Amino acid sequence: MTAAALAIAAAFVRPMERVVSMDPILSQSVYDCRAVQLVYETPLEVDYKARPYRLVPGLCELPEVSPDGLVYTFRLREGSALSSRDVVRALERLRDPANASPGGWTMKKVASVSAPDARTVEIRLSERYHVFPWMMAMGYAAVPLEDGSGTGPYLLKSWRRNHEMVFSRNPRWPGWSRTRDPGEPFDEVRYLVIGDVSTQWLMFLRGEIDFLGEISRDNWDAVVDGDGNLDAKLVAQGVRLFATPTLEVAYIGMNMRDPVLGRNRRLRQALTSAFDFPTWRRFFNNRVEAADGPVPRSVPEGRLDAPHPFPFDLARARALMSEAGYPDGIDPATGRRLALSLSLGRTDQDTRERGELLASFFEKIGVRLELSFSTWGAFMKAVNEGRVQMYVMGWVGDYPDAENFLQLFYSKNRSPGPNHSDYDNPAYDAEYEAAMASATDAERSAHWVKCQEILREDCPWIFAHYAKSFSLVRPRVGNYVPGSFPYGQEKQLRLEGGLK
Length: 500
Prior knowledge:
Elements: H1 3-9, E1 11-15, H2 30-39, E2 44-46, E3 55-57, E4 64-65, E5 71-75, H3 84-95, E6 110-117, E7 120-125, H4 132-135, E8 154-160, E9 164-169, H5 175-178, E10 188-192, H6 197-205, E11 211-212, H7 220-223, H8 232-236, E12 240-254, H9 265-273, H10 277-283, E13 288-290, H11 314-323, E14 330-331, E15 336-337, E16 339-344, H12 349-363, E17 368-373, H13 376-384, E18 390-396, H14 403-406, H15 426-437, H16 441-458, E19 461-473, E20 477-478, E21 494-495
Parallel strand pairs: 1-10, 16-17, 16-18
Antiparallel strand pairs: 2-3, 4-5, 5-7, 6-7, 8-9, 9-10, 11-19, 12-18, 12-19, 13-19, 14-15, 20-21
Helix pairs in contact: 9-11, 15-16
């Protein structure tokens, strides 16, 4: 085998959306963070295999926390080329408003960052913030050397923007000597920008890429047969299909400042009861789970035992429409059907079909849904400025804690913050603040449950679904474990069967 052929054989290849920035504090997208955490180390990491998710040492050991929950002391692990001064410099850069980092929010409760000695970092918070350690596992907190280079498992070898990124294994990364996983890591990682999903699919079938993490609806029937099993042709090739819950909740948001929706809880409840989840699930090839609140089931705390008070029920939805003042969907002020506007942030065919499906749901209770399609940027601008009535969106948790989802309804986070529905309920805020001030997990979880009970009655969102993740992996890729934190996961993968 030639040297070129050996290099190709020892490379892990996968499609990837465009990476915009390799600067940790500017790593805004999931794709940026994947690349950043191949090259740079974060103070902590998410355990690759543990479920429920938990934090493990990264660049640093797990922190010591003061009794009042305000001081976190991190000590760098042995063998690192980084010093505590590097960590302080990176975190100060992240929290400096002048740098306009999209991850600046992760440091909003940090009062000071200091280095008592060369191997110790002390972070003092302004108030108790139980999720703070999770911030230290995010790409924003990754630590470069002073010259900008990284000390992580891979080095950026080449970058042809909007085409290909190639990473080569860093032999000096101390993590290689700590791993207990058998087998050889891949010498190279190649990210290919392949915009067309059909092209991705054909390349996977030809063995030109090793991993397919996003399977389009159009290709789903070629992956799974009518009995829900992996297609026999793929099984014969040794391809494996993985499915796992995610930290993503999809929803239809309602603008609580809108004079029609915001003042009429019965109307919002009627729209929620008209949402036909069984049909919605079929549209998504049965790859989604019913959502009973904003917190996905893969988050362990604050789980709800009682069923959703407004499940799909057309008879009840029609009765609620009458109670809302719109019998049979007729607006008494005009004598015509109630018309509502739904904004969507894509213009592709799949998004259009999704909007038309939602319109068909509400048609059954007499509501005419007017669809508005735009680019993502224009859509987000309109949402942030409150110029939408209803909108389709999703939220992917940054960490597996109920707080990351329930902060989306806290009144102090209203747009342009993450509370895009401009929800404002003093009773909810009181429970949220009590949860954040709680000293124990059990006490905090009880407040999270009350928060969700309030939300399910108020219906500022229609909870559409919790997403599942499906991935296809070729047989030469070993030690793959699906999860919601894939950042830098290629360091965990192993080349099965050696070079062929």
